[in-house]
Amino acid sequence: MCLGIPGQIVEITDADRLMAMADISGVRREVNVSCIAEGPLQDLVGSYALIHVGFAMARIDEDEAAKTLEALRGLGEAQETLEAMEDGARALEGTS
Amino acid sequence: MRYIEEFRDPKAAKALLAAIETVVGEIGATADKPVHIMEICGGHTHAIFRYGLDRLTPPGIEFIHGPGCPVCVLPMSRVDECVKLAERPEVIFTTFGDAMRVPGSRKSLMQAKAEGADIRMVYSPLDALELARRNPDREIVFFGLGFETTTPSTALSIQQAAREGLANFSVFCNHITVPPPIKALLDDPHMVLDGFVGPGHVSMVIGTTPYDFIARDYGKPIAVAGFEPLDLLQSVLMVLEQIRDGRAEVENQYSRVVPREGNAVSLAAIEDVYEKRPSFEWRGLGEIDESGLRIRAKYKAFDAEEKFGIGYGAEKRVVEEVEGCACGEVMTGRIKPTGCPQYGKGCTPEMPLGALMVSSEGACAAYWQYGGLRGFDQSDVPVEAAE
Ligand code: SF4
Q1: Interchain CB contact of B265 with A (< 8 Å)
Q2: Ligand 1 proximity of B161 Cβ (cutoff 6 Å)
Q3: Phi, psi at residue B118, to the nearest 5°?
């Protein structure tokens, strides 16, 4: 919960709400991009960001994304975050 | 040198360790008269144990594990209030999974869920917002928990709920801030702290200026650090060099992610939605002035404390901790986890008695995970003042 996880913004899904689809370690998850939205939203597509509980908090470059993901994997935090995302999906269905 | 080959760049790690050894020698720090460096963030505590940094670095460095695990410092009375909220029939209580096993005085959220309360683990407050949209006949309460890394996300979610007029969404706000407990620890005459490794992702939000008081008013060095073991070693070296040179500055080892001024959008959202509480209770540390946030009156429709008449301080706050549990002493670095009479006996990650055993960022759980039942060698030595 305290450590962000790197993700790549792949598509803007709802420009009004500043929502985008991110690829987080191979898992797709909708995230809010208001904290990194400086220029045109479309410019974010393809870029990497540190994502904290569903909010992209800082843009990072690809190399930093790879290093951070490796560090998080080493700590077991990447797996924990991916599980939390699954929990979130289940919560919406009312099955968790 | 058991773990060094696991580092991304073992050669760089060895070079940093050699430099650290040299500076520790120049300072003249030894196992009997060590320098005390506090890593504030629980993520750093976890990384230190995972990579054995406390054992790879010379015995002249003593790591003190700071209060930077939000789950660990959550007061028991607040857990009790969560359980009460969750047990209301109209409520769907949403929370980060980390909080599920924190012991309350009656039960944890996990136990309440097993007994039938509608509690759902979510990844994001956005999930709670979506639940509110899908379940207009239910009250969705989100358990707002964490430091400045998660505070903006709850603030932005409340702003979104306000824009949509989602009347069935509210936040039980328990957000806390990093600088006040550091000040409280620095003011504690029993604490011996020579320098700090500052939190990386918190600083991404707040920047580095909130730490200026550490250098300016207390004359202590701090280096904000990333999460890679190399980042940690580098920042420890920066702190040691400051100590050797008699400097006290706020340095930023993690400048590739942390801007000095923080993240403007996050800070604006925090400012819009929250105000400081006069004081807030930290498990093991007691009440700390201006260390917690509450939701401003203009958003009171989304404040679970208002909506359900809970408030803060309405009930007797300090619920006694369990007999024989030494969480407070571990939290302030007075003893190591293995010095607690409950460690590995009454208290394990499966059945935590104290909150430090709940999350992998808690010092006791980190000890347990990487040191096991016996803990570490030398670990029973208390960290009392050398002078
Ligand atoms: S071992 Fe358990 S009871 Fe003892 S200090 Fe750690 S968390 Fe608290």
Answers
A1: yes
A2: no
A3: -85, 90
A17 CB within 8 Å of a chain B CB:
yes
| Same domain? B156 vs B130 | yes
Asked if B204 and A4 come within 8 Å (Cβ–Cβ), the reply is yes
Write down the pLDDT at residue B3.
62
Within a domain: B36: yes
Nearest to B124 among A50, A58, A88 (CB): A88
> How remote is the C-alpha of A71 from its chain's centroid?
16
Strand-by-strand arrangement of the B61-68 sheet: B61-68, B35-41, B195-198, B222-224, B250-252
CATH number at residue B54: 3.40.50.11750
pLDDT per residue over B162-179, tens digit each? 999 999 999 999 999 999
The range of the structural domain enclosing residue B139 comes to 76-176+292-313
Q: What is the mean pLDDT of residues B177-200?
A: 92
Distance of CA B146 to the CA centre of its chain: 7
- Whether residue B207 is found in the same domain as residue B232: yes
Cβ–Cβ contact B160 with A under 8 A = yes
Between chains, do B201 and A84 touch, taking CB under 8 Å as contact? no
Whole-number Å distance, alpha carbon B357 to ligand 1 midpoint, is 6
Residue B369: the pLDDT is 84
Q: DSSP per residue over B92-154, as a string?
A: EEEE-GGGTT---SS--HHHHHHTT--EEE-SSHHHHHHHHHH-TTSEEEEEEEESTTTHHHH
Which helix (DSSP H) or strand (DSSP E) does residue B227 occupy? none
Q: Which of B72, B104, B92 is nearest to B135 (CA)?
A: B92
Ligand 1 in contact with B340 (CB < 6 A)?
A: yes
B132 assigned to some structural domain: yes
B196 and B170 housed in the same domain: no
Q: Does pLDDT of B386 surpass 70? A: no
Among candidate residues B204, B237, B252, the one where a domain is terminated: B252
In the block, tokens 């994304």 appear at: A65
pLDDT digits (tens, 9 = 90+) for A10-68: 999 999 999 999 999 999 999 999 999 988 999 999 999 999 999 999 999 999 899 88
Residue of A nearest to B97 (CA): A84
More confident residue, B268 or B322: B268
CATH T-level fold of A5-95: SH3 type barrels. (2.30.30)
Interface contact A53-B123, CB threshold 8 A? yes
Total-model pTM: 0.90
Asked if residue B27 lies in contact with residue B237, where contact means CB atoms within 8 angstroms, the answer is no
The confidence score (pLDDT) of residue B320 equals: 61
Q: Which residues 270-329 of B have a C-beta within 8 angstroms of A?
A: none
Q: Do B256 and A76 touch (CB under 8 A)?
A: no
Residues in chain A closer than 8 A to B120 (CB atoms):
87, 90-91, 94, 96
Q: Which atom of ligand 1 is nearest to the CA of B358?
A: 7
Locate the domains of chain A by residue range: 5-95
Each residue's pLDDT tens digit, B343-379: 988 888 888 888 888 887 888 988 888 875 444 444 4
B351, part of any domain: no
In a domain, B260, yes or no: no
What is the count of structural domains for chain B? 2
